[in-house]
Give the backbone structure.
Amino acid sequence: MIDLSNSPVLRESQNYRIYQHPDNSGALLKVRCDKPGKRRLLKHRILKRPSELLYGNLRQWNREANEYLAALHRGCPEIDCLAKFMGFARTSEGPALIVEKMTSPDGDLAMTVAEELAELSAGDPRRDTIRNELLELLDDLERGRIIVGDFSAANVVRARERNGRLVVVDGLGERILLPITLYSNLAFKASVARRRRRIRRIPGTTHHAVQGSKKVV
Protein backbone atom coordinates (compact mmCIF):
# COMPACT_ATOMS: atom_id res chain seq x y z
CA MET A 1 0.00 0.00 0.00
CA ILE A 2 1.22 3.52 -0.85
CA ASP A 3 1.21 5.81 2.19
CA LEU A 4 -0.10 9.28 1.27
CA SER A 5 -0.61 10.52 4.82
CA ASN A 6 2.23 13.07 4.51
CA SER A 7 1.82 13.80 0.80
CA PRO A 8 0.43 17.19 -0.28
CA VAL A 9 -2.66 17.30 -2.47
CA LEU A 10 -1.55 18.76 -5.82
CA ARG A 11 -5.09 19.41 -7.04
CA GLU A 12 -8.56 18.72 -5.74
CA SER A 13 -11.92 18.68 -7.49
CA GLN A 14 -15.40 17.51 -6.64
CA ASN A 15 -14.45 13.96 -7.60
CA TYR A 16 -10.68 13.62 -7.11
CA ARG A 17 -7.69 14.39 -4.99
CA ILE A 18 -4.48 14.23 -7.00
CA TYR A 19 -1.09 13.30 -5.51
CA GLN A 20 2.41 12.89 -6.84
CA HIS A 21 3.33 9.21 -7.13
CA PRO A 22 6.10 8.74 -4.54
CA ASP A 23 8.02 6.21 -6.68
CA ASN A 24 7.54 7.69 -10.15
CA SER A 25 8.19 11.37 -10.88
CA GLY A 26 6.26 11.06 -14.15
CA ALA A 27 3.08 9.69 -12.62
CA LEU A 28 0.15 10.94 -10.56
CA LEU A 29 -2.24 9.18 -8.21
CA LYS A 30 -5.91 10.12 -8.59
CA VAL A 31 -7.97 9.19 -5.53
CA ARG A 32 -11.75 9.45 -5.71
CA CYS A 33 -13.27 11.57 -2.97
CA ASP A 34 -16.87 12.02 -4.18
CA LYS A 35 -19.80 10.81 -2.14
CA PRO A 36 -23.30 10.35 -3.62
CA GLY A 37 -26.09 12.53 -2.25
CA LYS A 38 -29.13 11.19 -0.39
CA ARG A 39 -31.38 11.03 -3.48
CA ARG A 40 -28.72 9.18 -5.43
CA LEU A 41 -28.15 6.75 -2.54
CA LEU A 42 -31.89 5.98 -2.44
CA LYS A 43 -31.94 5.42 -6.20
CA HIS A 44 -28.94 3.10 -5.94
CA ARG A 45 -30.63 0.97 -3.26
CA ILE A 46 -33.64 0.46 -5.53
CA LEU A 47 -31.89 -0.15 -8.85
CA LYS A 48 -28.20 -0.54 -9.54
CA ARG A 49 -26.41 -1.08 -12.81
CA PRO A 50 -24.16 -4.16 -12.90
CA SER A 51 -21.11 -1.88 -13.13
CA GLU A 52 -22.19 -0.10 -9.95
CA LEU A 53 -22.48 -3.40 -8.11
CA LEU A 54 -19.00 -4.41 -9.28
CA TYR A 55 -17.08 -1.14 -9.08
CA GLY A 56 -19.13 1.32 -7.00
CA ASN A 57 -17.90 4.87 -7.54
CA LEU A 58 -14.86 3.46 -9.40
CA ARG A 59 -16.92 2.48 -12.46
CA GLN A 60 -15.71 5.58 -14.34
CA TRP A 61 -12.19 4.16 -14.10
CA ASN A 62 -13.45 0.95 -15.66
CA ARG A 63 -14.84 2.95 -18.61
CA GLU A 64 -11.63 4.97 -18.97
CA ALA A 65 -9.45 1.86 -18.84
CA ASN A 66 -11.63 0.13 -21.45
CA GLU A 67 -11.49 3.10 -23.83
CA TYR A 68 -7.71 3.45 -23.45
CA LEU A 69 -7.27 -0.30 -23.98
CA ALA A 70 -9.44 -0.14 -27.11
CA ALA A 71 -7.24 2.63 -28.52
CA LEU A 72 -4.16 0.54 -27.75
CA HIS A 73 -5.72 -2.42 -29.53
CA ARG A 74 -6.38 -0.35 -32.65
CA GLY A 75 -2.82 0.97 -32.57
CA CYS A 76 -4.04 4.46 -33.43
CA PRO A 77 -1.38 7.21 -33.12
CA GLU A 78 -4.08 9.53 -31.76
CA ILE A 79 -3.69 7.78 -28.40
CA ASP A 80 -0.99 10.40 -27.77
CA CYS A 81 -3.88 12.86 -27.33
CA LEU A 82 -4.55 11.09 -24.01
CA ALA A 83 -2.63 11.04 -20.77
CA LYS A 84 -1.21 7.53 -20.38
CA PHE A 85 -3.19 5.07 -18.31
CA MET A 86 -0.69 3.39 -15.98
CA GLY A 87 -2.81 1.14 -13.77
CA PHE A 88 -4.29 1.13 -10.27
CA ALA A 89 -2.92 1.18 -6.75
CA ARG A 90 -3.94 0.80 -3.12
CA THR A 91 -3.19 3.86 -1.01
CA SER A 92 -3.80 5.02 2.54
CA GLU A 93 -6.44 7.35 1.07
CA GLY A 94 -8.25 4.60 -0.82
CA PRO A 95 -8.03 3.13 -4.35
CA ALA A 96 -6.05 5.24 -6.81
CA LEU A 97 -5.78 5.52 -10.57
CA ILE A 98 -2.19 5.91 -11.81
CA VAL A 99 -1.90 8.30 -14.75
CA GLU A 100 0.84 10.08 -16.66
CA LYS A 101 1.80 13.43 -15.15
CA MET A 102 1.18 16.35 -17.50
CA THR A 103 3.21 19.47 -16.69
CA SER A 104 3.64 23.11 -17.70
CA PRO A 105 6.95 24.50 -19.06
CA ASP A 106 8.08 25.30 -15.50
CA GLY A 107 7.48 21.74 -14.34
CA ASP A 108 4.32 22.40 -12.32
CA LEU A 109 1.11 20.49 -12.87
CA ALA A 110 -0.32 21.58 -16.23
CA MET A 111 -3.18 24.08 -16.20
CA THR A 112 -6.49 23.00 -17.62
CA VAL A 113 -7.77 24.79 -20.70
CA ALA A 114 -10.65 26.05 -18.55
CA GLU A 115 -8.07 27.76 -16.30
CA GLU A 116 -6.29 29.21 -19.34
CA LEU A 117 -9.55 30.66 -20.67
CA ALA A 118 -10.45 32.09 -17.27
CA GLU A 119 -7.29 34.23 -17.35
CA LEU A 120 -8.14 35.77 -20.75
CA SER A 121 -10.52 38.65 -21.27
CA ALA A 122 -13.38 38.45 -23.75
CA GLY A 123 -12.14 39.25 -27.24
CA ASP A 124 -8.54 38.29 -26.47
CA PRO A 125 -7.24 36.68 -29.70
CA ARG A 126 -5.68 33.89 -27.66
CA ARG A 127 -9.21 32.63 -26.97
CA ASP A 128 -9.62 32.04 -30.71
CA THR A 129 -6.30 30.19 -30.75
CA ILE A 130 -7.39 27.92 -27.90
CA ARG A 131 -10.74 27.29 -29.58
CA ASN A 132 -8.95 26.22 -32.77
CA GLU A 133 -6.62 23.95 -30.79
CA LEU A 134 -9.62 22.28 -29.15
CA LEU A 135 -11.16 21.73 -32.58
CA GLU A 136 -7.90 20.17 -33.80
CA LEU A 137 -7.84 17.91 -30.74
CA LEU A 138 -11.41 16.85 -31.43
CA ASP A 139 -10.46 16.11 -35.06
CA ASP A 140 -7.66 13.85 -33.80
CA LEU A 141 -9.99 12.04 -31.42
CA GLU A 142 -12.52 11.52 -34.20
CA ARG A 143 -9.82 10.17 -36.52
CA GLY A 144 -8.72 7.70 -33.83
CA ARG A 145 -12.36 6.95 -32.95
CA ILE A 146 -11.61 7.67 -29.30
CA ILE A 147 -14.72 8.33 -27.24
CA VAL A 148 -14.49 11.14 -24.69
CA GLY A 149 -17.90 11.26 -23.06
CA ASP A 150 -17.07 14.40 -21.07
CA PHE A 151 -15.08 16.51 -23.53
CA SER A 152 -14.75 19.82 -21.71
CA ALA A 153 -12.11 22.47 -21.18
CA ALA A 154 -11.79 21.28 -17.57
CA ASN A 155 -10.65 17.84 -18.76
CA VAL A 156 -8.00 19.07 -21.22
CA VAL A 157 -4.53 20.44 -20.40
CA ARG A 158 -1.60 21.88 -22.33
CA ALA A 159 1.28 19.47 -21.75
CA ARG A 160 5.02 19.96 -21.97
CA GLU A 161 5.20 16.19 -22.47
CA ARG A 162 3.41 16.67 -25.80
CA ASN A 163 5.43 19.72 -26.87
CA GLY A 164 2.73 22.12 -25.74
CA ARG A 165 -0.17 20.36 -27.46
CA LEU A 166 -3.52 19.76 -25.76
CA VAL A 167 -4.10 16.45 -24.00
CA VAL A 168 -7.23 14.83 -22.55
CA VAL A 169 -6.68 13.90 -18.89
CA ASP A 170 -10.19 12.88 -17.84
CA GLY A 171 -13.64 11.98 -19.18
CA LEU A 172 -12.79 8.99 -21.40
CA GLY A 173 -15.52 6.56 -22.35
CA GLU A 174 -19.28 6.83 -22.72
CA ARG A 175 -21.26 7.31 -19.51
CA ILE A 176 -24.72 6.32 -20.70
CA LEU A 177 -26.18 2.86 -20.02
CA LEU A 178 -26.36 1.97 -23.74
CA PRO A 179 -23.18 3.37 -25.34
CA ILE A 180 -24.47 3.56 -28.91
CA THR A 181 -21.48 5.69 -29.95
CA LEU A 182 -19.36 2.58 -29.40
CA TYR A 183 -21.29 0.57 -31.98
CA SER A 184 -22.77 3.14 -34.35
CA ASN A 185 -20.54 5.20 -36.62
CA LEU A 186 -23.46 7.58 -37.22
CA ALA A 187 -23.99 8.12 -33.50
CA PHE A 188 -20.26 8.62 -32.95
CA LYS A 189 -20.03 11.28 -35.66
CA ALA A 190 -23.17 13.01 -34.36
CA SER A 191 -21.66 13.13 -30.87
CA VAL A 192 -18.44 14.66 -32.21
CA ALA A 193 -20.45 17.20 -34.23
CA ARG A 194 -22.30 18.34 -31.09
CA ARG A 195 -19.04 18.86 -29.25
CA ARG A 196 -17.57 20.72 -32.23
CA ARG A 197 -20.53 23.14 -32.23
CA ARG A 198 -20.08 23.81 -28.52
CA ILE A 199 -16.36 24.50 -28.94
CA ARG A 200 -17.04 26.99 -31.73
CA ARG A 201 -19.25 28.94 -29.35
CA ILE A 202 -16.74 29.45 -26.55
CA PRO A 203 -17.61 32.82 -24.95
CA GLY A 204 -15.26 35.64 -25.91
CA THR A 205 -14.14 34.11 -29.22
CA THR A 206 -14.79 35.72 -32.58
CA HIS A 207 -17.48 33.21 -33.54
CA HIS A 208 -19.20 33.62 -30.19
CA ALA A 209 -19.26 37.39 -30.60
CA VAL A 210 -21.05 36.96 -33.92
CA GLN A 211 -23.50 34.24 -32.81
CA GLY A 212 -24.17 35.48 -29.29
CA SER A 213 -24.29 32.00 -27.77
CA LYS A 214 -24.22 31.64 -23.98
CA LYS A 215 -22.85 28.10 -23.93
CA VAL A 216 -19.52 27.28 -22.37
CA VAL A 217 -17.32 24.29 -23.28
Remarks:
- Residues 209-217 have pLDDT under 50 and may be disordered.
- The longest strand covers residues 85-91.
